[in-house]
Amino acid sequence: MRILVLGGTGYLGRHVAERLRALPGAQVLAAGRSAAAFAADLAADPPGRLARTLAAAAPDAVVNCAGATGGDPVTLAEVNARGPAVLCAALREAAPTARLVHLGSAAEYGPGTPDVPVTEAAPACPVTPYGATKLAGTLAVTSAALDAVVLRVGNPVGPGAPVASLPGRLAALLRTAGRDPEAVLRLGDLSAHRDFVDVRDVARAAESAVTAPGPLPGVLNIGSGTAVPVRELVHGLARRAGFRGTVEEHAGGSARSAQVSWQCSDISAAARTLGWRPVHTLDDALAALWTATGERVP
């Protein structure tokens, strides 16, 4: 089985590619802007050029992990909205029978209702450019008449988290602060609740979606199924790092989190359809993230 992973050098893509390489008989091909064998830029390549890349790869399945989480609205639209649309057009031309697994985002739903996990049937009401452009990408995939599924991923946590994300930035700050009791971490409001999912569980979900028989639903939620205060993640990683300083919360925070105080996904459809459930806890994810920084604490 030939599997093409787009964005295979990114945070999610590296984990997905590693997981897929363990499949018996799988040949995993990585494609991206800097890939030598299969160069692909979903933000800029015209459909014809991308179709030629796909034809050369001859994939049985494509996993699209490419995406932008930050930047101006134009950049977000080019990568998150245009990218999936161009990919679908190229697939219809060069590999119409290949299964497409596209990584979406729970940010597409927008604000949730406390204590009510959101199902795939819930209306999508994103409130940020990131969520809106990810939703546009999802619509491009689900309306493309391909063998395709969108995995709407919660907040991924785990080894390799980029510094653009709160877990990655926090790990970097803790690495710098060490055990200094005078150190102060100044962060934004940490009262929001998020559905944190171990990045390794996301990779398992992608594997399950690639290998599952028959047609799949257009959208499946991938998360932990539990809403956790962001504060719990911060203090959990601080404890793992042996941090002895002070964590200060201030008004404001990530633009991607604007107006979203609660987010939690109902993951029962993924369990029914893919036989998938998360196996890692948040503490597992934080332990793996901290270990990956190279700063092991006795």
UniProtKB/TrEMBL annotation:
Q: Which Pfam families does the UniProt record give?
A: Epimerase
Q: NAD-dependent epimerase/dehydratase domain: which residues? A: 3-223
User: Could you tell me the superkingdom of the organism this chain comes from?
Assistant: Bacteria
Q: Which SUPFAM superfamilies match?
A: NAD(P)-binding Rossmann-fold domains
Q: Which family does it belong to?
A: Belongs to the NAD(P)-dependent epimerase/dehydratase family.
Q: What is this protein called?
A: NAD-dependent epimerase/dehydratase domain-containing protein
The organism of origin for this protein? Streptomyces bangladeshensis
